[in-house]
Amino acid sequence: MNSGDRLLTVDEAAERLGTGVRFIRRLIQERRIRYVKLGKHVRIAESVLAAYIDASTVPTLRDARSRFGKAA
Question: What are phi and psi of 38, to 5 degrees?
Answer without folding.
Answer: -115, 90
